[in-house]
Amino acid sequence: MKRVLLAAATLAAAATAGAQPAVIYELGAKNDKSFGEAAWRGAQQWQKETGKPYLEFEIANAAQREQAARRFAERGADPVVGIGFPQASAIEKVARDFPKQRFAIVDMVIKLPNVQSFVYREHEGSFLVGMLAAMASKSGKVGFVGGQDIPLVRKFLCGYEQGAKYANPKVQLLSAMTGTTNAAWTDPPRGAELTKAQIAQGVDVVFSAAGTTGFGIMQAAKDAGIYAIGVDSNQNHLHPGTMLTSMVKRVDLAVYQAFKGVQPGVTVLGLKEGGVDYALDEYNAKLITPAMKARVDQAKADIVAGRLKVIDYTAANACR
């Protein structure tokens, strides 16, 4: 209760600031070291370049999605950016009520003349980390633990599976989803449990595509001495030595572009646009051999050039 009251007070105070861009973070907030943090970095980049302030709000429950969007719109915030598909209905309702103001949504398409929808080709980045997983695996078994079982997460899984089998046609993939509700994104104990079950079956690399549930996945991987793959933000630094890489999803680009000026319609960000990629830095440089890097970089170039096609699960709700 205290958190909800504090959140409401923060929203009320922020909304009085007037005509500034605003960002609404999903459950898990901006300090999740993943999806929300990526969005926050985009807002910070815009602020650093312009020297102007922006509004932000971290929701504590589902009801606050529409409340936040509406209050920001009532105070003239422009644009109002919703981070994550759960905010789509709230953004759509408020955007209809405030047709002269601009809005943006990440991971969902809203067909309104005052809304910019940002969607990603997550399957392309997942293909690359799938390749790395298969090349790094000694057991020939790689794992995937997703968050909420929805087509978007299966898009990650499908790309990952394609990449793993591209690198090693004999690789075996074990996969699990944390749950079927939004709570699946914020359940580290369940993530750890699912990961341990895969490790017991021989998995020695696991891809975490599960929001803050990933903390449990990555910790379980570290405890067992196997590799984990992070998601959304570069999470290599969380467990140096056992983080093989991260599938970076540049949500910061969406927020930054929206803050600079909403362009209504659908904006798609993939490898070609720098919207997704695999992460290579000082924390995992010793884990990615020159041969692995050369092979994955060639695949990346082939995908960008259109020579290598990666199946998008959401195109037909099937990985084929």
From TrEMBL:
InterPro entries in alphabetical order: BMP_lipoprotein, Peripla_BP_I, PnrA-like
Keywords associated with the record: Cell membrane, Lipoprotein, Membrane, Signal
Location of this chain's protein in the cell: Cell membrane
Gene3D superfamilies, alphabetized: 3.40.50.2300
Key word Cell membrane present: yes
Tree of life domain: Bacteria
Pfam families tied to this protein: Bmp (PF02608)
Family: Belongs to the BMP lipoprotein family.
Protein's name according to its UniProt entry: Nucleoside-binding protein
Membrane protein topology class: Lipid-anchor
Main location per the UniProt record: membrane
Keyword flag Signal: yes
GO cellular component terms, A-Z: plasma membrane
Positions of the ABC transporter substrate-binding protein PnrA-like domain: 28-277
SUPFAM superfamilies, per the entry: Periplasmic binding protein-like I
